[in-house]
Fold this sequence. Notes:
By secondary structure, the chain is of the alpha+beta class.
Amino acid sequence: MENQLFWLQGDQTVHPILRGRRTADAVVVGGGFAGLTIALWLCKAGLRVVLLEAETLGSGASSRCLGKASLLGGVSYARLEQRHGREVSAAYGLSQQNAFAALRELATQPGADCGWVEADDHLTGLERDEQRLGEELQAMERAGVAAGLGKATQSPMPADFSLTVKDMALLHPMRYMRWLAREGERLGLKIYEHSRVTSMETNLAGTPRGSVLAPYIIVATGYPIVNTPGWYFLRLIQRQSWLIPLNGEAQFSGIYGDWQGEYALRRLGKGMLMHLAGGRVGEKRPVHPLEMYRQRYAPYLENARASHAYGGIDTYTADGLPFIGPYGKKTPNMFVACGFGGRGLMGSMLAAQSISARILGLSNDGDAIYSGQRRGDGFLMPQVQAGLSIAGHYAGNLFRFRAPYCPHMGCKLRYRPEVRLWECPCHGSRFDDIGHIKNAPATRDAVIRYRRRG
Length: 454
Ligand SMILES: Cc1cc2nc3c(=O)[nH]c(=O)nc-3n(C[C@H](O)[C@H](O)[C@H](O)COP(=O)(O)OP(=O)(O)OC[C@H]3O[C@@H](n4cnc5c(N)ncnc54)[C@H](O)[C@@H]3O)c2cc1C
């Protein structure tokens, strides 16, 4: 397995580190799809915007992306309708179509060079899944989204039926992000890299060497780095998944995936690219992703060869909808965009549209669907694990145990030797061998104490 991703190859523009105090109209924290799209939209609205990125642009989940932008997958329209009613499902369908149209317009502008290609998106199932796929099709139609159900004649994996949405898209994630950054900078966006935000108030974001004072703060760090208000750490989990490039010619066109979200497959250049879903970060995963590929999928892709798996993580909510909007009830000027559940390209565009509209004082009925304050839907496991781990942390301090703890909320870290990472089982922060932080919600390094040998 490799940590350096093939999408990252190519020229990278270097941005400075934030030093000293700056002022702006809005500060965006995080330089992935969400942060960059929101920053660009705010610049278009005429705001002076500063973006602070902990590492380099795209160093989080956004470069670990298959590059699919589609109305299909992630949220089930049938389940959404059952849970929240037809009105919500229709508003969701409309907001998704608006986001897709905006994404297409942006990514196909002259000079964009994002590798945008149109492709039909197919979710496949076996004979026994026909009814399930049929229900999904009907719910999509009621929500105003055009789809079709037919025999899966071209599917590269065993499948009897496929639910298809035509003219969806594939793009090159890194080229798309570079385009967002270039466009933003053309409109005055100031980007700072290697500037991790370690402290935050409602109008001030602080890094180790500087700070930005701004009336609006947008947290787009994948997993939100501020625990309260919002209590997102009780309502989000981080899941691992893998990108596996395959040598060998694709015998299909479009994008194929199974309806349960276990895999997705696209063409890439002369080969293919596969997305394999993994488990929750911190869980024990006995099967290596390449082994999983060889056991489950390789027999059907005869000429394809896999040699590397690139790991990435994304945040998931319990109901499948992202959290987009004010951070908490009492923080109307501080926003969050997270929980994209493997659909960050669409989610980021929704976030950009929704947050910029709010800042401009425009109302949008669709906002309530994605609100971070919508009811229910917490995940039980992270809450239980956090409780036990925090109790363990205090007991450990008392008795001087030497196990490393996550600086976010004190959960005990687990070491994963195959990727040489320490992982937090409660909220998914990860650290390298020596405790250097790899991803949110933690904002500080972990202290790893090694026992002296001999
Ligand atoms: C294998 C895989 C395949 C995927 N395929 C697709 C796909 O085909 N289509 C799709 O739409 N989505 C896909 N996704 C999901 C998508 O990649 C994510 O939803 C999306 O990238 C999330 O974007 P983001 O900006 O919220 O987070 P990120 O890209 O993680 O960006 C967050 C940024 O915030 C920075 N940050 C963190 N903490 C701080 C801090 N304290 N201060 C400053 N900066 C900070 C990080 O360094 C990071 O750069 C896939 C995900 C994976 C893992």
